[in-house]
Each structure stands twice: as C-alpha cells, then as structure tokens.
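Notes to self after the call with IL:
- keep both proteins in one doc
- input above output, always
- annotate only the second one for now

Protein 1:
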Amino acid sequence: MAVDELPMILFTVISQMCVGAFVVLGLVQTVGGMKYSRRVVDRLADPALFALGPALVAGLIASMFHMNDVTHTFNVIRHWQSSWLSREIIFGVGFAGLGFLFAVLQVLKIGSEALRRVVAVATALFGVGLVVSQVMIYYSLVTVPAWSSWATWVQFFGTALLLGALAVGTAFVLVIARRQNRPASSQVEATNEGSYGQRLKDFFADRQVDDPQTGAQVAELMVGSVRACVVGAVLVAGALLVAMPVYVSGLAGSGEVGLLSVAHYGTGFAVVRFGLLALGALLLGVMAFYFAGFGTKKLRVLGFLMVGSFVLVFIGELMGRSLFYEAMVRVGV
C-alpha cells in the first residue's frame, strides 16, 4: 500500500464519498418530494446530512499532512487562476462551508424552501467542482500515462457515486433502526415549533415520534431509497469491474512505462481490492435489495448487509486509490 500517500488517499476517497452522498441525498429529496410530503422526506433525509460534515472535515485535515507544513495551504490557494490544486482547495472549503450552511438552514427550517434549494444546488455544484479539480490534478500530468487517462475520470467519479449511494442507503437504515429501538417513554409528537435551540436539541436527540401514517410513509420511502441506492451502487461497481481491465489492457500496450504501471494491478493486493468491490457491492448489495422488500420486519438483517457492504467497498476503494498512486511512473526523467 502507498503509505506515503495515505493523507491524499483518505482525502480524495472521503471527499468524493461526501460529494456523491450529497448528490444522492438531493435526488432522494427531489424524487421523494414528488410523492410524499416535505415532513416525510425530511424525517428520513435530514439526519444523514450531519454524517457528511465530520467526514469531509476529517478528509480535509488528512490532506494537510501531505504538505508537511499546514501553513503552505494558504500559499497554494493564491494560484487559483492556473493551478488545479488551488481550485481543489477552494472547491473543497466551499463545499464544506455551503454544506454546513445548508444543514443548519434545513434542520432549523430557517428561510424559505426556495432559499434552501438554492443553497443545496450551490453546494452540489461546489462538490462536483471539487471532484473535477481532483481529476484534473492528475489527468493533466501527461508525463504520467497511468494518470493522464480516461480511467482517472471513471475511478474518481465512480468512487463518488458508489460510496455516496452506499453511505446514504446505510444512513437511512440506521436512522430507522435507531427510532425503532427508542423507549416509548422518550418519544414526543413530531413538530417544527419552538425556538431554534429547542429544535436543534430535539433533532439530535431524535425523540420525535410520527403519527402512524407519517411513520408508514417514512418507512416506505426508506425502502424505495435503499433499493435505488443499491441498484445505483451495483451498476457503478459493475461498470468499474468492466472498465478497469480495459484500462489495464490499454496501459500495458503503451510501452515500457505502461508495463511498469500495470505490474501493480497484477498483485494479490489488487485481487483483494476488486474482490472486496465485487463482494461488497454486488453480493451484499443484491441481498440488501432483497431484504429491503421486507420493510422494517427484517431491519436488523438489512442493517447488517448495508453496513457490511459499505465497509467492504470503502476499504476496497482505499486500496484502489493506493493502486492509483503506486501506478505513477513518469515518462522521461
């Protein structure tokens, strides 16, 4: 494993996962809002928002260790006109800041729904800009054939969509499971009234109980969303499992430098990486799709499958990103 690149491995994978999860959440809120009330959609989607922030901040902090001196960050952003690295930092900080703002507005129900939608769209655009910047940092290096390839786009956006979908699906299942396990004495009627401080306290305590109709609709939305997330993850994983051999084959035919890069994809480490992807996304994902059909009756099994799928794929993506850095062989000096 490329231990020296561990900060960048963590940063790129975690940040791409957060971008993908935010986009998937937006799709759930948009599509779900066509069938269900805003309260039903928010009861499922809002708790997942606060899982993204800490993950992205952790990734940003990890990336700073790659610079040896974290104060160099401020020098890097001064060259945003010409440097994709500068743009990466700007988009990353913008995505984190706007995401936090949207979460606060959404949870506390501050401002109109239209305002929150504008902030959400801006956050998503900054997120996409972050991933594009990350791709271009490596894609623009024509002296590294393994990076200056269409496969860099596929790998980075594939990680975003794959982990984003699984993270959201897992979060939804855990949210419903937590609510099922609450003692009845701790539950209060769901409401958006009261001071902002009380709303925030109620949100994190998650003590609210819905009326039977709302509760049933939240569970129904969870099932549909989890199944959609699993289908999306399986499709992306399948595309990656097809695209990577094509990429490796093309790289092997590009000369001596390509062969040196390809050597890393023929190791046991690479076999385990793709095995985790197939096991986590395809096998456990298909099983999760099946058990989601039982709704809340098989929630414990569904939760185990979703968590297991996410963990295996996350580890696999970390290993895949390590292979990406290990494949760096320059043309010439």
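Protein 2 (the one to annotate):
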Amino acid sequence: MNNFEFKNPTKIIFGKDSIEKLSKEIPENAKVLLLYGGGSIKNNGIYKQVKTALENVTVIEFGGIPANPEYAVLMEALEVIKTENITYLLAVGGGSVIDGTKFLSAAALYEGHSPWNILTDNIRTEKGLPFGTVLTLPATGSEMNSGAVITRAETKEKLGMGGPGLFPEFSILDPQVITSIPERQLANGLTDAFTHVLEQYMTYPIGALLQDRFAESILQTLIEVAPRVLKDPTDYEAASNFMWSCTMALNGLIQKGVPTDWAVHAMGHELTALFGIDHARTLAVIAPSHYKYHFEAKKEKLAQYGERVWNITEGSTDDKAYAAIEKTEAFFHELGINTKLSEYTKDYEGTAETISQRFTERGWLGLGEHKNLTPDKVEKIVKMAY
C-alpha cells in the first residue's frame, strides 16, 4: 500500500427530514446566496423545506445553474456575490449545482486576471468562501469532496478544479429526495457512482486489501439496489443505500494508498463538451473500450473484480477479466445506458482526433495509473468507442 494522508472535514447530516436541521449549520448573521438549478426544487417540496429552515436568515437566491455548470452563468452569480457582499453559499441541488458553488467559492476570493484561469492553470484553492450543500440528486459525490468540473460553452471545454479550501462545511443528505427524480437521472447517478469507484479500483494490485474491499462493497451495493431504486424510488432502504454509496464512491477514502486512473473521466468530459452528452453516459461509452485497450495492464484487477463483484469463478485470469468487462457493459445496458458514441450522435467522425489534439495542446501527455496514456492512445480508445 502506498503512503497517504487523509482529511475530510465535511460534516454529513444523513436521514429522513434532515433538511430541517439546516438552520443550525448556517453561521450567525450570515448573508447567504442560495444556489439551485432549473427549479425542480420548487415542485418537489425541497425549496419550501429549505426556505422554512432559513426563515431567520438573510437569503438571496440564484437559480438556473445548468446540468453542466456553465461558466457564463456562474459569472453572473459571482457578480451577485460581490455586489451583495455575500458571506456564505448554499448549494441546493445535485453535482452540477454543488460543482458550480465550489467554483464560486474559489472565484469569490480569487485575485487573478480571470476566474477561468483557476481551471486552465490548475490553481488549487487553499481557502474559499464557505459553503454548505443540500443534496437533491445522488451521483457525483461532490457533496463530500473538494473537486469540481466546470463547462464553458464558448470554447467547448470541460475542465476540473479543486483544493483543500473547497470541501463543503456540511452536507445534508435526505434519501427521500430521490422520489421525485426522473428515471433517466437515477440511472445516470448509478452509472456515475459505479464508474467513480472503477476509476480508483481498476488499476493494478498493490496489496491494499481493505481499500479493495471498500471499493468492491460499494460496487456490490450499487448493483444490488439499482433495480429497486429504478422500480420504486420511494423504497427508503434502497434510496438510502444508493445515496450513501454515491457519497462514499468519491469522498477520497477509497483512493488512499492505491494508484488511480481517471483517464475515463478525462475522455468522457470531452464528449460532454463536444456533444452535450450526459456525463455519466460518456463514462459508460469510454470505460469498456478503455479496459479492453489496457487489458494486459489491468487484467489482474479486472479478474479480481469479476470474481468478487460478479461471482465469475470459471476460466483463466484472461477469461475472468474479459467476462468482467462484458458484465460491466451489460450492467450499464440494464440501467438503460447506451455504451457506444454512435448511439448518441451521428457526427462522431473525427472526434477521436479532436480529443487527442486537445490533450496534446494541454500537455496531457501521460494519463492513467502508469502515466503512459498518450494522446495517440487516447485517439485509439475513443475510436474503439464509436
């Protein structure tokens, strides 16, 4: 196992009717900017719960943060923060709203030329404007980590950012919120969380026995509850295990002491930036091809995954590893997730070359756990995913 340091300062408030505890977490005399997305929280009762909990707090609202948090929209929110002297941010939404809030947390205190440089120059945020979250859509794990991904339509880019100053101070997780989530978004959430675990697990053995089993248990739980969540989102037991699995998939714990990949995300982000495909679905497009291309380097973990998660007991290491990839792709199909780029767009020709060129221009010359995934290899993987 590799050396590591681990600190996660986010307070989690989990369970039924936990939104009513919100007022106890907001600092006294805070001036709060309430951030949310397309307005669904006003139809499902969450907005009312939040406003009731904050009835004695000064609150200004900013809605309309899109599914891929858009830089231009966030810049409008940043202007509100500065003109209204906002002292605290509250994200009420899924990963996109929370990611957008993290960007605003960093940008509010950034003194550089343009806030976009936070992303292009990989500037780590050591201190941001404090914020909390009320999670409305389990998926990204953004409610308990310090990372974010922001989209800029103007340049068709989707870039990541982070830093220790971007952990939420608290996050409220009430599994009851999933009862109003459309099936498509539930399937996306399951796929997103599942792939988050794979990115931190599907590398090579390093003797981190507990970390492997942490990861495998999250994968097993997602597989078990997925059909229940999709069939009946009011199933509280299934909903609570789904929500907590999504959080645990990316709160930093399972990546400690082990090598991690994240190349699937790097390629998937480009598909979202170019075509507007749902983030989770881009991961399902890239992951099978990525594992097939890197089969020799990943087959030991693929076989272990096949044995422990999918109960594949017959055959050689190669046989189990191939079967594990097939099981993964079948799982995505069972969720209603297509796994080929051509199933999302007919304009896919030239995509691989475009992504490869972008990686070259950014200096992304060695991705993956071995830092040897070069742009020419990226091009081949994306073509395999057509």
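Annotation: The beta strands are 11-14, 31-35, 58-62, 88-93, 131-135, 147-152, 157-162, 170-173. The mean pLDDT is 96.
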